[in-house]
Amino acid sequence: MEFVWLAAMILAFLLKPKIQPMSKPVFTYSEDQLKQITQDMLRFAKTRGASDAAVEVSEGGGLSIGVRKGKVETIEQNRDKGVGVTVYIGSRRGNASTSDFSQKSLQDTVDAAYNIARFTAEDDCAGLPDADMLETAPRDLKLFHPWLISAEEAIALAQRTEAAAYAVDKRISNCEGAGVYVQQSHFMSANSRGFLGGYPFSRHTISVAPIAGKGARMQRDDWYSSQRDPKKLATPESVGHYAAERALARLNARPIDTRKCPVLFEAPLAAGLLGAFVQAVSGGALYRRSSFLLDSLGQQIFPKHIQITEDPHVIGGVGSSPFDDEGVRTQQREVVSDGVLNGYFLSSYSARKLGMQTTGNAGGSHNLSMTSSLCKRGDHFVQMLKKMGTGLLVTELMGQGVNYVTGDYSRGASGYWVENGVIQFPVEEITIAGNMREMFQQIVAIGADTLARGTKTTGSILIENMTIAGS
Questions:
Q1: Against a cut of 0.85, is the pTM above it?
Q2: What is the pLDDT of residues 102-132, one digit of tens each?
Q3: How far apart are CA 127 and CA 88, in angstroms?
Q4: Of the candidates 43, 323, 394, 468, which lies 20 to 30 Å from 351 by C-alpha distance?
Q5: Is there a contact between 346 and 283 (Cβ–Cβ < 8 Å)?
Q6: At residue 428, what are phi and psi to the nearest 5 degrees?
Q7: Cα separation, 35 vs 45, whole angstroms
Q8: How far apart (Å, rounded) are the C-alpha atoms in residues 47 and 41?
Q9: From CA 170, how far away is CA 425, in angstroms rounded?
Q10: 163 and 128 in contact (C-beta within 8 Å)?
Protein backbone atom coordinates (compact mmCIF):
# COMPACT_ATOMS: atom_id res chain seq x y z
CA MET A 1 0.00 0.00 0.00
CA GLU A 2 1.31 3.42 -0.91
CA PHE A 3 1.26 6.02 1.86
CA VAL A 4 1.33 9.10 -0.34
CA TRP A 5 -2.11 9.94 1.10
CA LEU A 6 -0.71 12.07 3.90
CA ALA A 7 1.14 14.62 1.76
CA ALA A 8 -1.70 14.73 -0.76
CA MET A 9 -4.34 15.14 1.90
CA ILE A 10 -2.43 17.91 3.68
CA LEU A 11 -2.33 19.85 0.41
CA ALA A 12 -6.01 19.19 -0.30
CA PHE A 13 -6.93 20.14 3.26
CA LEU A 14 -5.19 23.51 2.97
CA LEU A 15 -6.73 24.30 -0.42
CA LYS A 16 -10.35 23.52 0.46
CA PRO A 17 -12.85 26.41 0.30
CA LYS A 18 -13.77 28.03 3.58
CA ILE A 19 -17.11 28.35 5.32
CA GLN A 20 -18.61 31.77 5.90
CA PRO A 21 -19.32 33.57 9.18
CA MET A 22 -22.69 34.69 10.44
CA SER A 23 -23.63 38.12 11.82
CA LYS A 24 -22.23 39.80 14.92
CA PRO A 25 -23.57 38.90 18.39
CA VAL A 26 -24.14 41.39 21.18
CA PHE A 27 -22.72 40.96 24.68
CA THR A 28 -24.94 41.62 27.67
CA TYR A 29 -22.43 44.10 29.10
CA SER A 30 -20.79 46.87 27.13
CA GLU A 31 -17.08 47.70 27.25
CA ASP A 32 -17.89 50.82 29.26
CA GLN A 33 -19.84 48.77 31.81
CA LEU A 34 -16.91 46.38 32.25
CA LYS A 35 -14.61 49.37 32.73
CA GLN A 36 -16.94 50.79 35.36
CA ILE A 37 -16.92 47.53 37.31
CA THR A 38 -13.11 47.50 37.41
CA GLN A 39 -13.00 51.13 38.56
CA ASP A 40 -15.64 50.51 41.24
CA MET A 41 -13.70 47.59 42.66
CA LEU A 42 -10.40 49.48 42.66
CA ARG A 43 -12.15 52.28 44.52
CA PHE A 44 -13.60 49.83 47.04
CA ALA A 45 -10.14 48.34 47.59
CA LYS A 46 -8.55 51.73 48.16
CA THR A 47 -11.30 52.71 50.59
CA ARG A 48 -10.83 49.44 52.45
CA GLY A 49 -7.15 50.24 52.97
CA ALA A 50 -5.38 48.20 50.27
CA SER A 51 -1.96 49.41 49.21
CA ASP A 52 -2.54 48.03 45.71
CA ALA A 53 -5.19 46.08 43.82
CA ALA A 54 -5.87 44.44 40.46
CA VAL A 55 -9.22 43.50 38.89
CA GLU A 56 -10.34 41.49 35.89
CA VAL A 57 -13.94 41.21 34.75
CA SER A 58 -15.10 39.05 31.84
CA GLU A 59 -18.18 37.85 30.01
CA GLY A 60 -18.54 35.19 27.36
CA GLY A 61 -20.90 32.90 25.58
CA GLY A 62 -20.79 30.00 23.23
CA LEU A 63 -22.31 26.93 21.66
CA SER A 64 -21.04 23.34 21.64
CA ILE A 65 -22.61 20.66 19.43
CA GLY A 66 -21.80 16.94 19.43
CA VAL A 67 -23.07 14.53 16.78
CA ARG A 68 -22.51 10.77 16.49
CA LYS A 69 -23.80 8.51 13.71
CA GLY A 70 -25.79 11.42 12.38
CA LYS A 71 -27.71 11.94 15.60
CA VAL A 72 -27.33 14.78 18.06
CA GLU A 73 -25.68 13.70 21.31
CA THR A 74 -25.03 17.03 23.00
CA ILE A 75 -26.19 20.62 22.69
CA GLU A 76 -24.59 22.95 25.18
CA GLN A 77 -24.95 26.69 25.33
CA ASN A 78 -22.98 28.71 27.85
CA ARG A 79 -23.24 32.25 29.11
CA ASP A 80 -20.63 33.06 31.74
CA LYS A 81 -19.48 36.13 33.57
CA GLY A 82 -17.20 36.74 36.50
CA VAL A 83 -14.95 39.20 38.23
CA GLY A 84 -11.81 38.54 40.26
CA VAL A 85 -9.88 40.90 42.48
CA THR A 86 -6.42 40.71 44.03
CA VAL A 87 -5.80 42.94 47.03
CA TYR A 88 -2.36 43.75 48.42
CA ILE A 89 -1.57 44.92 51.93
CA GLY A 90 2.09 45.63 51.57
CA SER A 91 3.61 42.29 50.58
CA ARG A 92 0.57 40.27 51.63
CA ARG A 93 -1.91 39.21 48.99
CA GLY A 94 -5.52 37.99 48.91
CA ASN A 95 -7.80 36.92 46.04
CA ALA A 96 -11.57 36.59 45.72
CA SER A 97 -14.08 36.32 42.89
CA THR A 98 -17.81 36.46 42.16
CA SER A 99 -20.25 36.10 39.29
CA ASP A 100 -22.65 38.65 40.81
CA PHE A 101 -22.07 42.14 39.40
CA SER A 102 -24.27 43.99 41.89
CA GLN A 103 -22.56 46.77 43.85
CA LYS A 104 -23.02 44.94 47.15
CA SER A 105 -21.51 41.75 45.78
CA LEU A 106 -18.56 43.63 44.28
CA GLN A 107 -17.86 45.32 47.59
CA ASP A 108 -18.25 42.06 49.52
CA THR A 109 -15.75 40.41 47.15
CA VAL A 110 -13.20 43.16 47.78
CA ASP A 111 -13.77 42.75 51.51
CA ALA A 112 -13.18 39.00 51.22
CA ALA A 113 -9.91 39.50 49.33
CA TYR A 114 -8.79 42.13 51.85
CA ASN A 115 -9.47 39.84 54.80
CA ILE A 116 -7.58 36.99 53.15
CA ALA A 117 -4.61 39.30 52.63
CA ARG A 118 -4.67 40.33 56.29
CA PHE A 119 -3.98 36.76 57.40
CA THR A 120 -1.62 35.75 54.59
CA ALA A 121 2.11 35.51 55.19
CA GLU A 122 4.29 38.26 53.78
CA ASP A 123 6.00 37.55 50.46
CA ASP A 124 8.65 40.01 49.32
CA CYS A 125 8.11 39.01 45.70
CA ALA A 126 4.35 39.65 45.71
CA GLY A 127 3.03 42.83 44.13
CA LEU A 128 1.92 44.47 40.93
CA PRO A 129 4.29 45.02 37.99
CA ASP A 130 6.23 48.27 37.93
CA ALA A 131 4.21 51.06 36.31
CA ASP A 132 6.72 51.58 33.49
CA MET A 133 6.22 47.96 32.38
CA LEU A 134 2.46 48.34 31.85
CA GLU A 135 0.86 48.71 28.42
CA THR A 136 -0.75 52.15 28.24
CA ALA A 137 -1.85 52.10 24.59
CA PRO A 138 -2.95 48.56 23.64
CA ARG A 139 -3.14 47.94 19.90
CA ASP A 140 -6.06 46.24 18.18
CA LEU A 141 -4.86 42.82 17.01
CA LYS A 142 -8.20 41.81 15.40
CA LEU A 143 -8.86 38.92 17.79
CA PHE A 144 -12.65 39.12 17.66
CA HIS A 145 -14.44 37.40 14.78
CA PRO A 146 -17.91 36.46 16.06
CA TRP A 147 -19.92 33.66 14.58
CA LEU A 148 -23.61 33.89 15.33
CA ILE A 149 -24.63 30.42 14.25
CA SER A 150 -27.81 28.68 15.39
CA ALA A 151 -27.83 25.26 17.01
CA GLU A 152 -29.54 23.85 13.91
CA GLU A 153 -26.85 25.24 11.63
CA ALA A 154 -24.08 23.94 13.88
CA ILE A 155 -25.69 20.49 13.96
CA ALA A 156 -25.79 20.48 10.17
CA LEU A 157 -22.07 21.34 10.00
CA ALA A 158 -21.19 18.57 12.45
CA GLN A 159 -23.30 16.08 10.47
CA ARG A 160 -21.57 17.10 7.25
CA THR A 161 -18.18 16.58 8.91
CA GLU A 162 -19.06 13.09 10.11
CA ALA A 163 -20.78 12.15 6.84
CA ALA A 164 -17.65 13.16 4.92
CA ALA A 165 -15.63 10.76 7.05
CA TYR A 166 -18.03 7.86 6.45
CA ALA A 167 -18.08 8.58 2.70
CA VAL A 168 -14.34 8.00 2.27
CA ASP A 169 -14.43 4.22 2.62
CA LYS A 170 -16.78 1.46 3.82
CA ARG A 171 -14.12 0.50 6.34
CA ILE A 172 -14.98 3.62 8.35
CA SER A 173 -17.25 1.60 10.60
CA ASN A 174 -17.93 3.96 13.49
CA CYS A 175 -17.18 7.38 14.87
CA GLU A 176 -16.50 8.83 18.30
CA GLY A 177 -18.35 11.90 17.12
CA ALA A 178 -18.09 15.19 15.29
CA GLY A 179 -18.37 18.56 16.94
CA VAL A 180 -18.74 22.27 16.36
CA TYR A 181 -17.59 24.65 19.08
CA VAL A 182 -18.24 28.40 19.01
CA GLN A 183 -17.00 30.82 21.68
CA GLN A 184 -16.82 34.60 21.94
CA SER A 185 -15.88 36.61 25.02
CA HIS A 186 -14.58 39.95 26.18
CA PHE A 187 -12.81 41.19 29.30
CA MET A 188 -11.41 44.25 31.02
CA SER A 189 -8.43 44.41 33.38
CA ALA A 190 -7.27 47.27 35.59
CA ASN A 191 -4.93 47.88 38.48
CA SER A 192 -4.13 50.63 40.95
CA ARG A 193 -0.95 51.62 39.11
CA GLY A 194 -2.86 53.04 36.15
CA PHE A 195 -3.35 50.06 33.85
CA LEU A 196 -6.68 49.68 32.06
CA GLY A 197 -7.14 47.42 29.06
CA GLY A 198 -9.25 44.71 27.53
CA TYR A 199 -10.67 43.42 24.27
CA PRO A 200 -13.13 40.94 22.77
CA PHE A 201 -11.89 37.64 21.35
CA SER A 202 -13.25 34.50 19.71
CA ARG A 203 -12.31 30.88 19.00
CA HIS A 204 -14.20 28.39 16.83
CA THR A 205 -13.57 24.70 16.07
CA ILE A 206 -14.80 21.88 13.84
CA SER A 207 -13.64 18.35 14.73
CA VAL A 208 -14.26 14.66 14.10
CA ALA A 209 -12.83 11.31 15.29
CA PRO A 210 -13.66 8.44 12.89
CA ILE A 211 -13.00 4.74 13.57
CA ALA A 212 -11.82 2.34 10.88
CA GLY A 213 -12.13 -1.45 10.87
CA LYS A 214 -13.98 -3.77 13.21
CA GLY A 215 -13.41 -5.78 16.37
CA ALA A 216 -9.94 -5.95 17.86
CA ARG A 217 -8.41 -4.39 14.76
CA MET A 218 -10.26 -1.09 14.97
CA GLN A 219 -8.23 2.07 14.65
CA ARG A 220 -9.23 5.67 15.34
CA ASP A 221 -7.79 9.02 14.46
CA ASP A 222 -9.04 12.58 14.51
CA TRP A 223 -8.58 15.99 13.01
CA TYR A 224 -9.82 19.46 13.68
CA SER A 225 -9.73 23.00 12.38
CA SER A 226 -9.64 25.82 14.93
CA GLN A 227 -9.50 29.55 14.23
CA ARG A 228 -10.48 32.88 15.72
CA ASP A 229 -12.08 33.79 12.39
CA PRO A 230 -14.73 31.34 11.11
CA LYS A 231 -13.90 32.37 7.54
CA LYS A 232 -10.54 30.62 8.00
CA LEU A 233 -11.99 27.31 9.20
CA ALA A 234 -11.59 24.41 6.82
CA THR A 235 -14.81 23.01 5.40
CA PRO A 236 -16.53 20.16 7.25
CA GLU A 237 -15.90 17.93 4.23
CA SER A 238 -12.13 18.47 4.24
CA VAL A 239 -11.89 17.89 8.00
CA GLY A 240 -13.95 14.69 7.81
CA HIS A 241 -12.15 13.34 4.74
CA TYR A 242 -8.69 13.94 6.16
CA ALA A 243 -9.55 12.40 9.54
CA ALA A 244 -10.94 9.29 7.80
CA GLU A 245 -7.81 8.88 5.65
CA ARG A 246 -5.68 9.04 8.80
CA ALA A 247 -7.77 6.36 10.52
CA LEU A 248 -7.70 4.08 7.48
CA ALA A 249 -3.93 4.33 7.17
CA ARG A 250 -3.57 2.90 10.68
CA LEU A 251 -5.34 -0.38 9.90
CA ASN A 252 -3.28 -3.55 10.40
CA ALA A 253 -0.85 -1.78 12.71
CA ARG A 254 1.65 -3.94 14.56
CA PRO A 255 4.49 -3.59 17.09
CA ILE A 256 8.15 -3.55 16.15
CA ASP A 257 11.17 -4.91 17.98
CA THR A 258 13.02 -2.83 20.55
CA ARG A 259 15.68 -0.73 18.84
CA LYS A 260 17.31 2.67 18.54
CA CYS A 261 16.56 4.74 15.47
CA PRO A 262 15.72 8.23 14.18
CA VAL A 263 12.25 9.51 15.08
CA LEU A 264 10.20 12.00 13.08
CA PHE A 265 7.49 13.78 15.07
CA GLU A 266 4.56 14.80 12.88
CA ALA A 267 3.93 18.57 13.05
CA PRO A 268 0.94 18.41 15.46
CA LEU A 269 3.06 16.43 17.93
CA ALA A 270 6.19 18.49 17.29
CA ALA A 271 4.34 21.43 18.84
CA GLY A 272 4.32 19.40 22.06
CA LEU A 273 8.13 19.31 22.07
CA LEU A 274 8.11 23.10 21.80
CA GLY A 275 5.64 23.16 24.69
CA ALA A 276 7.99 21.04 26.81
CA PHE A 277 10.76 23.55 26.17
CA VAL A 278 8.51 26.41 27.31
CA GLN A 279 7.60 24.54 30.48
CA ALA A 280 11.26 23.92 31.28
CA VAL A 281 12.28 27.59 30.91
CA SER A 282 9.23 29.14 32.58
CA GLY A 283 9.64 31.06 35.81
CA GLY A 284 7.65 28.75 38.09
CA ALA A 285 9.76 25.70 37.23
CA LEU A 286 12.97 27.70 37.42
CA TYR A 287 12.56 29.33 40.83
CA ARG A 288 11.30 26.04 42.28
CA ARG A 289 14.39 24.41 40.73
CA SER A 290 12.23 21.75 39.12
CA SER A 291 13.52 22.04 35.57
CA PHE A 292 16.14 20.15 33.56
CA LEU A 293 17.13 23.50 32.01
CA LEU A 294 18.14 25.32 35.20
CA ASP A 295 20.65 28.14 34.75
CA SER A 296 20.55 27.65 30.99
CA LEU A 297 20.40 31.31 29.93
CA GLY A 298 23.07 31.97 27.32
CA GLN A 299 23.74 28.26 26.83
CA GLN A 300 23.58 26.19 23.64
CA ILE A 301 20.32 24.29 24.19
CA PHE A 302 19.65 23.38 20.54
CA PRO A 303 21.87 22.91 17.48
CA LYS A 304 23.01 26.12 15.79
CA HIS A 305 20.41 25.85 13.03
CA ILE A 306 17.46 26.22 15.45
CA GLN A 307 15.60 29.50 16.02
CA ILE A 308 12.60 30.12 18.30
CA THR A 309 10.79 33.44 18.04
CA GLU A 310 7.88 34.92 19.97
CA ASP A 311 5.54 37.40 18.30
CA PRO A 312 2.56 38.45 20.46
CA HIS A 313 1.36 40.92 17.82
CA VAL A 314 0.36 38.63 14.96
CA ILE A 315 -2.93 39.96 13.62
CA GLY A 316 -5.67 37.47 14.50
CA GLY A 317 -3.21 35.04 16.10
CA VAL A 318 -4.43 32.52 18.65
CA GLY A 319 -1.59 33.49 20.99
CA SER A 320 -1.72 37.22 20.27
CA SER A 321 -2.15 39.84 22.98
CA PRO A 322 -0.95 43.43 23.44
CA PHE A 323 -0.36 42.73 27.15
CA ASP A 324 -0.06 39.73 29.45
CA ASP A 325 -2.33 38.69 32.32
CA GLU A 326 -0.79 41.38 34.54
CA GLY A 327 -1.09 44.21 32.02
CA VAL A 328 2.62 44.13 31.13
CA ARG A 329 3.25 45.07 27.50
CA THR A 330 4.23 42.17 25.30
CA GLN A 331 7.07 42.33 22.78
CA GLN A 332 8.55 40.45 19.87
CA ARG A 333 11.75 38.64 20.76
CA GLU A 334 14.14 35.90 19.73
CA VAL A 335 13.89 33.37 22.53
CA VAL A 336 16.49 31.12 20.91
CA SER A 337 19.06 32.33 18.37
CA ASP A 338 21.34 29.85 16.64
CA GLY A 339 20.47 27.32 19.33
CA VAL A 340 21.35 29.65 22.24
CA LEU A 341 18.72 30.46 24.88
CA ASN A 342 18.28 34.24 25.11
CA GLY A 343 15.40 34.51 27.56
CA TYR A 344 13.00 32.79 29.92
CA PHE A 345 9.20 33.07 30.21
CA LEU A 346 8.58 35.15 33.33
CA SER A 347 5.76 36.86 35.18
CA SER A 348 6.43 39.67 37.65
CA TYR A 349 6.39 37.25 40.58
CA SER A 350 8.68 34.62 39.07
CA ALA A 351 11.02 37.35 37.79
CA ARG A 352 11.40 38.77 41.28
CA LYS A 353 12.04 35.28 42.67
CA LEU A 354 14.87 34.94 40.17
CA GLY A 355 16.19 38.47 40.56
CA MET A 356 15.20 39.29 36.97
CA GLN A 357 12.63 41.35 35.06
CA THR A 358 9.28 40.12 33.76
CA THR A 359 9.21 39.12 30.10
CA GLY A 360 5.48 39.80 29.73
CA ASN A 361 4.58 36.13 29.92
CA ALA A 362 2.19 36.03 32.87
CA GLY A 363 -0.34 33.56 31.49
CA GLY A 364 2.03 31.81 29.08
CA SER A 365 3.83 32.19 25.77
CA HIS A 366 2.59 34.16 22.76
CA ASN A 367 2.74 32.80 19.20
CA LEU A 368 5.97 30.83 19.40
CA SER A 369 7.51 29.68 16.14
CA MET A 370 10.30 27.11 15.92
CA THR A 371 12.29 26.98 12.67
CA SER A 372 15.55 25.71 11.24
CA SER A 373 17.94 27.71 9.08
CA LEU A 374 18.58 24.45 7.20
CA CYS A 375 14.94 24.14 6.17
CA LYS A 376 14.23 24.65 2.48
CA ARG A 377 10.93 25.77 0.99
CA GLY A 378 10.26 22.29 -0.40
CA ASP A 379 11.00 20.40 2.82
CA HIS A 380 7.46 19.21 3.37
CA PHE A 381 6.30 15.87 4.72
CA VAL A 382 7.61 13.60 1.95
CA GLN A 383 11.00 15.33 1.99
CA MET A 384 11.20 14.93 5.77
CA LEU A 385 10.62 11.19 5.40
CA LYS A 386 13.48 11.09 2.90
CA LYS A 387 15.72 13.01 5.30
CA MET A 388 15.00 10.41 7.97
CA GLY A 389 15.63 7.49 5.62
CA THR A 390 14.86 4.57 7.94
CA GLY A 391 13.14 5.17 11.26
CA LEU A 392 9.86 5.84 13.04
CA LEU A 393 7.25 8.42 12.09
CA VAL A 394 5.22 9.24 15.22
CA THR A 395 1.65 10.45 14.73
CA GLU A 396 0.13 9.82 18.18
CA LEU A 397 1.45 9.99 21.73
CA MET A 398 -0.13 8.66 24.91
CA GLY A 399 0.46 9.39 28.57
CA GLN A 400 2.28 12.21 30.34
CA GLY A 401 5.74 10.67 30.52
CA VAL A 402 7.91 13.77 30.83
CA ASN A 403 9.95 14.34 33.98
CA TYR A 404 10.71 18.05 33.94
CA VAL A 405 13.23 17.75 36.78
CA THR A 406 15.50 15.26 35.00
CA GLY A 407 14.32 15.70 31.41
CA ASP A 408 13.57 11.99 31.06
CA TYR A 409 11.02 11.35 28.31
CA SER A 410 9.00 8.16 27.89
CA ARG A 411 5.62 7.99 26.16
CA GLY A 412 3.40 5.44 24.51
CA ALA A 413 3.29 5.99 20.77
CA SER A 414 1.93 4.88 17.44
CA GLY A 415 2.82 5.82 13.90
CA TYR A 416 4.55 4.28 10.87
CA TRP A 417 7.76 2.43 10.14
CA VAL A 418 9.74 4.07 7.35
CA GLU A 419 12.47 2.56 5.16
CA ASN A 420 14.45 4.46 2.53
CA GLY A 421 12.13 7.43 3.00
CA VAL A 422 8.95 5.45 2.25
CA ILE A 423 6.27 4.44 4.79
CA GLN A 424 6.11 0.63 5.01
CA PHE A 425 3.43 -0.18 7.60
CA PRO A 426 1.60 1.29 10.62
CA VAL A 427 3.05 0.70 14.10
CA GLU A 428 1.38 0.53 17.51
CA GLU A 429 1.98 -0.69 21.09
CA ILE A 430 5.41 0.87 21.40
CA THR A 431 7.10 3.35 23.72
CA ILE A 432 9.59 6.00 22.66
CA ALA A 433 12.16 7.17 25.22
CA GLY A 434 15.01 9.61 25.57
CA ASN A 435 16.10 12.67 27.51
CA MET A 436 14.70 16.06 26.57
CA ARG A 437 18.04 17.86 26.80
CA GLU A 438 19.61 15.28 24.47
CA MET A 439 16.55 15.29 22.19
CA PHE A 440 16.81 19.05 21.76
CA GLN A 441 20.50 18.74 20.89
CA GLN A 442 19.73 15.97 18.37
CA ILE A 443 17.20 17.88 16.26
CA VAL A 444 18.46 17.16 12.75
CA ALA A 445 15.78 18.99 10.78
CA ILE A 446 12.51 20.90 11.03
CA GLY A 447 10.14 20.66 8.08
CA ALA A 448 8.40 23.34 6.04
CA ASP A 449 5.12 21.50 6.74
CA THR A 450 4.32 24.04 9.45
CA LEU A 451 1.15 23.76 11.50
CA ALA A 452 -0.17 25.94 14.32
CA ARG A 453 -1.47 24.13 17.40
CA GLY A 454 -2.65 26.59 20.02
CA THR A 455 0.01 29.25 20.57
CA LYS A 456 2.83 27.23 18.97
CA THR A 457 3.83 26.76 15.34
CA THR A 458 6.39 24.33 13.94
CA GLY A 459 6.90 21.84 11.17
CA SER A 460 7.66 18.16 11.71
CA ILE A 461 10.77 17.61 13.86
CA LEU A 462 13.38 14.94 13.15
CA ILE A 463 15.34 13.60 16.15
CA GLU A 464 18.57 11.82 15.28
CA ASN A 465 18.23 8.90 17.71
CA MET A 466 15.75 7.62 20.31
CA THR A 467 15.03 4.32 22.01
CA ILE A 468 11.98 2.42 20.79
CA ALA A 469 10.63 -0.15 23.25
CA GLY A 470 8.54 -2.70 21.38
CA SER A 471 7.84 -6.43 21.36
A1: yes
A2: 999 999 999 999 999 999 999 999 999 999 9
A3: 7
A4: 43
A5: yes
A6: -145, 175
A7: 16
A8: 10
A9: 21
A10: no
